[in-house]
Input
Amino acid sequence: MTTKPKKQKFIVAEHESIDECLDRMRKDGYYPVRRMEQPIFKEEVRDNIVEHVPCGREIIFEGKLL
Output
């Protein structure tokens, strides 16, 4: 018998709402304890100079086992 990890990270998918991600966590038996956001950058070249331009964010929830 395998046991679930005590902590697990859940990433909000591109076409998923935060509520849908939280529902998915509850179905897996976890409750949210922490929300983290990370910026997503893309590289653009302007005048032969590479710039990192923010183009979005990634939302990650950390869940603990119930």
Summary: The longest strand covers residues 30-46. The chain has a mean pLDDT of 94.
